[in-house]
């Protein structure tokens, strides 16, 4: 089943082409790493997939739908690039931030508080962060915060997980924990994963597809 | 207690307490979205609504409410056009509001009535205005409680909220309306020049106290309630303007809490 389908996608910032006739399919269970230099178009591609930008030409579909229209009833886990910077001063505990990962619209809300807490603690335990549930997010190190953000992205059992520069600010322990969890989820639950990174692609054990953004094109290595 | 035997003081306390509950609830989202000046823009715009209401012979609070809603929607609209300089939208609308208020106030016959909206007159609230404040406050509070999670999520990360299925545009629109309603009723009571302080300063106090988002909000409400009640008592017995007194107490509260926190952090650091 195709999770992501991109056909002849072209995107320009004013007159500067950033993505040129990109064609890419990501199937269920794919574990793809996208690398590229600054300005190569990988962040723009991510923004198109997340519905932040609309292409001038071509189409991008996620689960068969235009991402610009929103992701209601589609489970996507997303860890943004600048989450650490944003988290520093936000007055919320890890548990409160984890609650956002279990968001349901008001007319579909059926989770009891107890069940939510169980799911939250399970997700935090997977990333070895359960003892920090009552800590303020800003009290954690960068690597710990990234682990919390990943736990938040995973707790709702998403079908697609998108990570933007997940290794930025991460210590070795956190990185190892992250890679183990991603590998296990991909193998056991066929979780489709897309990671955008500048870092060492060898860290991501289990990754099966390696893509490179180069001068607006996406090449498969 | 003699102070509570007077009808005007009973109304003042009731209005003050209602506002002390809803303003931090609105304020926390405003602060976390880093749009703290929006209260200023809307309250200045509300003065244009007051002047328009007085000129047209309609309830100035209603006029303030309508103009506030238009101004709030204008801020959202301009922000979408120039997302990189979103804070300019607030400045543009504030300029338009205060300019319009300045021009229209020149045509208002009863200048004293218009001037009462600058610093408010919580002790001269009529029964009709009390009913309006009660209805609006209950409506705002119910909406904030219903959409607590959505507002938290949008305040934390608007993009991630959208990806998770939060109807961000609708939530922002609703929040804009609630902010405009709160500012318009607060302008009448504590004054257009003071409203934005009531939105922001209790939240700043709450952030010194709370370890979680919930506790920050509850602390902000507690600070707003205690300073409002203390401010009304103080203004009654000393003759000071109630709106200004309440805000000065809030600022004093913040300075004390910030100082205590600094001393405590230094002491913990030395350990």
TrEMBL record, chain A:
Positions of the ABC transporter domain: 4-221
Superkingdom, taxonomy of origin: Bacteria
Entry-linked PROSITE patterns: ABC_TRANSPORTER_1, ABC_TRANSPORTER_2
UniProt KW Membrane keyword: no
Pfam families: ABC_tran
GO molecular-function terms, A-Z: ATP binding; ATP hydrolysis activity
Keyword terms: ATP-binding, Nucleotide-binding, Transport
UniProt similarity note: Belongs to the ABC transporter superfamily.
Entry protein name: Zinc transport system ATP-binding protein
Organism in which the protein naturally occurs: Muricomes intestini
Automatic annotation (TrEMBL), chain B:
Protein name: Zinc transport system permease protein
Family named by the database record: Belongs to the ABC-3 integral membrane protein family.
Primary residence: membrane
PANTHER family hit by this protein: ABC-TRANSPORTER METAL-BINDING PROTEIN (PTHR30477), METAL TRANSPORT SYSTEM MEMBRANE PROTEIN TM_0125-RELATED (PTHR30477:SF0)
Alphabetical GO biological process terms: response to zinc ion; transmembrane transport
KW Zinc-finger (keyword) present: no
Gene3D superfamilies (alphabetical): ABC transporter involved in vitamin B12 uptake, BtuC
Keywords associated with the record: Membrane, Transmembrane, Transmembrane helix, Transport
Presence of keyword Transmembrane: yes
Topology class, membrane: Multi-pass membrane protein
Cell location: Cell membrane; Membrane
One Pfam assignment: ABC-3
TM region positions: 12-32, 52-73, 85-108, 128-148, 168-186, 192-210, 217-237, 243-263
GO cellular component, one term: ATP-binding cassette (ABC) transporter complex
InterPro entries referenced in this protein's UniProt entry, alphabetically: ABC_BtuC-like, ABC_TroCD
């Amino acid at each position: 089943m195709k999770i992501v389908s991109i056909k002849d996608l072209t995107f320009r910032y004013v007159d500067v082409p950033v993505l040129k006739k990109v064609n890419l399919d990501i199937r269920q269970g794919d574990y793809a790493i996208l690398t590229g230099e600054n300005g190569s178009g990988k962040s723009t591609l991510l923004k198109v997939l997340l519905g932040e930008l609309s292409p001038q030409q071509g189409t991008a579909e996620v689960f068969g739908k235009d991402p610009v229209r929103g992701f209601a009833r589609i489970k996507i886990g997303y860890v943004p690039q600048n989450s650490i910077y944003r988290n520093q001063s936000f007055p919320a505990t890890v548990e409160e931030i984890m609650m956002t990962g279990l968001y349901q619209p008001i007319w579909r809300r059926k989770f009891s508080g107890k069940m939510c807490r169980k799911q939250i603690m399970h997700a935090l335990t997977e990333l070895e962060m359960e003892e920090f549930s009552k800590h303020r997010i800003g009290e954690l190190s960068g690597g710990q915060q990234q682990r919390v953000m990943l736990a938040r992205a995973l707790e709702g059992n998403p079908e697609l997980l998108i990570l933007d520069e997940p290794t930025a600010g991460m210590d070795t322990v956190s990185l190892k924990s992250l890679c183990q969890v991603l590998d296990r989820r991909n193998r056991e639950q066929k979780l489709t994963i897309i990671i955008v990174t500048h870092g060492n692609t060898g860290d991501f054990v289990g990754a099966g597809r390696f893509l490179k953004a180069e001068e607006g094109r996406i090449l498969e290595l | 207690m003699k102070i509570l035997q007077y009808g005007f003081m009973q109304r003042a306390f009731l209005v003050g307490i209602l506002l002390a509950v809803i303003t931090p609830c609105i304020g926390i989202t405003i602060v976390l979205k880093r749009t703290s000046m929006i209260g200023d823009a809307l309250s200045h715009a509300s003065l244009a609504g007051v002047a328009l209401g007085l000129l047209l012979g309609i309830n100035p609070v209603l006029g303030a409410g309508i103009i506030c809603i238009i101004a709030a929607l204008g801020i959202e609209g301009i922000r979408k056009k120039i997302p990189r300089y979103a804070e300019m939208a607030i400045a543009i609308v504030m300029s338009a509001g205060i300019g319009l208020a300045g021009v229209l106030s020149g045509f208002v016959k009863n200048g004293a009535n218009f001037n009462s909206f600058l610093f408010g007159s919580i002790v001269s609230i009529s029964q009709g205005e009390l009913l309006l404040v009660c209805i609006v406050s209950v409506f705002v509070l119910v909406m904030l409680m219903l959409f607590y999670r959505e507002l938290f999520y949008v305040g934390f990360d608007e993009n991630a909220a959208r990806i998770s299925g939060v109807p961000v545009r609708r939530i922002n629109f609703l929040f804009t309306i609630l902010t405009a309603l709160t500012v318009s009723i607060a302008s009448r009571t504590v004054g257009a020049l003071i409203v934005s302080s009531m939105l922001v300063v209790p939240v700043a106090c709450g952030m010194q106290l709370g370890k979680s988002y919930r506790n920050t909000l509850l602390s902000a409400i507690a600070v707003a309630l205690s300073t409002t009640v203390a401010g009304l008592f103080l203004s009654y017995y000393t003759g000071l303007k109630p709106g200004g007194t309440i805000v000065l107490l809030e600022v004093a509260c913040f300075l004390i809490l910030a100082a205590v926190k600094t001393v405590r952090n230094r002491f913990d650091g030395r350990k």
